[in-house]
């Protein structure tokens, strides 16, 4: 089991980091390039394990994809160019790959089996399976399609109007991808707004989609064309360094070319509400996804309440927000975040367990947590539980925890941020740096 030992208490942070490509956009760029006709060139692609799973799945479906570092070229032949795979599609640890691919497979006139690792096998899939069955796809799996492996025999789909019971960009995207090949209109209505990368990507590839408040409508069938996609830096990855810059004493760092899609900037709103010393500098280019540089310095933070429509805009950042809250003045309350229970881990209980053993005071609740601020943290034997965001959160915690931190299964961080420790090492000043065990 891979471990990292960190003894960084008292370190200051200084310098610039070029945040790696956005994971959500990297996934979608490969998917849309594979179902479009013509060449798609992707730059600043995230070569993390999750996104590589997406590439592997489409290669098994007959798509020619070449990767050179963070540059990817996809030779798409449209939906009709996809071929029945000779083996099952392995999505690894990627919920995005699993759920979004279901929407694509639903319209393909052949049989496919899709499955991932042990974590994916525990994550609920009926939220995708049910609407796709309603559209006409034949899908079966464990517990009547609740869990992977899932067997899909696609075919002719019809448009539907579907109200999501839970705000989920993955489910919305899966239905929209199916809607690209369905007859008639498909409308998805959300209980709260979620990230809109799929809608933007459809337009980038020459498709048409209409958004009206919390409803998104697509008419099918549509044909997409290959294009160029420059992936901005992932704000979910940047969040860990934003927290590090706010917490480590005497720090000032700049994060370059970070995606600033309004549906993803909840972490910036939270930092601003907590009183962080943060500045945003938007890029001038007309990219289909807004991006810019973010500067952050050591800050005196205060506790706040986080709930409602803000939650879908920062659901992946809640583990690092919890760490921020342990150092803020006063109490922070997080509500309406029950979706955390069905991530790579139950992130409500896991965050509370790991930070409490460092000395934090966190009370988990049914849909969030209550965090008492101003607590002094002490390093301990910590465990990522195989969850990349928990592993990165604990690594940032080492900056403000007395003593040496040892993190079990730190290798899981490669799922979304392969260069995380190298980047941390590059900005740590006046302190012993990261050491592998």
What does this structure look like?
With 437 residues, the protein is α/β, with parallel strands linked by helices. The protein contains 13 helices and 27 strands. It has helices at 23-35, 49-60, 95-105, 126-135, 142-145, 169-179, 197-204, 235-247, 266-274, 318-327, 347-356, 388-397, 420-427; strands at 3-6, 12-18, 37-43, 64-68, 71-77, 89-90, 111-115, 138-141, 147-153, 161-163, 184-189, 210-212, 215-220, 228-230, 252-259, 277-282, 291-297, 305-306, 331-334, 361-365, 368-372, 377-378, 381-383, 401-402, 405-408, 428-429, 435-436. The strands form 7 sheets. The chain has a 5-stranded mixed beta sheet with strand order 16-17-15-2-26. The protein has a 4-stranded mixed beta sheet with strand order 23-25-1-27, covered by helices on one side. Strands 4-5-3-14 form a 4-stranded mixed beta sheet, covered by helices on one side. The N and C termini lie close together (10 Å).
What strand line-up does the widest sheet have? 16-17-15-2-26
| Count of individual helical segments | 13
Count of beta strands: 27
Low-confidence stretches: none
| Cα end-to-end separation | 10 Å
Helical content stands at 25-40%
> How would you sum up the major sheet?
5 strands, mixed
- Specify Rg, calculated over alpha carbons: 21 Å
What is the approximate shape? globular
Task: Write a concise synopsis of the structure shown.
It is built from 13 helices and 27 strands.
């Amino acid at each position: 089991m891979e471990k990292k030992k960190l003894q960084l208490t008292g370190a200051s942070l200084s310098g610039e980091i070029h945040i790696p490509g956005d994971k959500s956009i990297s996934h979608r760029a490969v998917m849309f390039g594979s179902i479009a006709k013509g060449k798609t060139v992707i730059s600043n692609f995230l070569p993390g394990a999750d996104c590589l799973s997406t590439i592997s799945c489409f290669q098994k479906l007959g798509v020619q994809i070449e990767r050179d570092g963070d540059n990817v070229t996809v030779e798409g032949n449209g939906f009709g160019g996809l071929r029945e795979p000779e083996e099952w599609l392995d999505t690894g640890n990627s919920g995005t790959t699993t759920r979004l691919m279901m929407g694509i497979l639903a319209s393909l006139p052949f049989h496919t089996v899709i499955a991932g690792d042990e974590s994916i096998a525990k994550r609920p899939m009926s939220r995708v399976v049910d609407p796709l069955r309603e559209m006409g796809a034949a899908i079966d799996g464990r517990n009547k399609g609740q869990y992977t492996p899932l067997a899909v025999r696609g075919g002719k789909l019809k448009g539907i109007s579907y109200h999501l019971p839970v705000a989920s960009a993955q489910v919305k995207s899966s239905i929209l991808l199916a809607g690209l090949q369905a007859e008639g209109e498909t409308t998805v209505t959300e209980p709260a707004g979620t990230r809109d990368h799929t809608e933007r990507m459809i337009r980038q590839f020459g498709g048409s989609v209409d958004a009206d408040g919390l409803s998104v409508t697509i008419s099918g069938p549509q044909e997409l064309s290959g294009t160029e996609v420059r992936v901005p830096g992932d704000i979910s990855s940047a969040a860990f360094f934003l927290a590090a810059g706010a917490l480590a004493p005497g720090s000032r760092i700049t994060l370059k070319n970070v995606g600033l899609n309004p549906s993803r900037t909840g972490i910036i709103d939270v930092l601003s509400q907590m009183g962080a010393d943060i500045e945003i500098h938007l890029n001038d280019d007309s990219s289909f996804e807004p991006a810019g540089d973010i500067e952050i310095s050591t800050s005196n933070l205060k506790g706040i309440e986080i709930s409602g429509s803000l939650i879908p805009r920062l659901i992946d950042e809640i583990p690092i927000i919890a760490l921020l809250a342990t150092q803020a003045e006063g109490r922070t309350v997080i509500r309406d975040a029950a979706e955390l229970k069905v991530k790579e881990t139950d992130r409500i209980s896991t965050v509370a367990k790991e930070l409490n053993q460092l000395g934090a005071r966190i009370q988990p609740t049914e849909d969030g947590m209550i965090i008492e601020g101003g607590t002094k943290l002490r390093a301990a034997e910590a465990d990522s539980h195989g969850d990349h965001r928990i592993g990165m959160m604990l690594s940032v915690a080492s900056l403000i925890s007395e003593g040496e931190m040892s993190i079990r299964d730190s290798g899981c961080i490669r799922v979304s941020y392969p260069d995380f420790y190298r980047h941390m090492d590059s900005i740590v000043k006046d302190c012993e740096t990261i050491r592998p065990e």
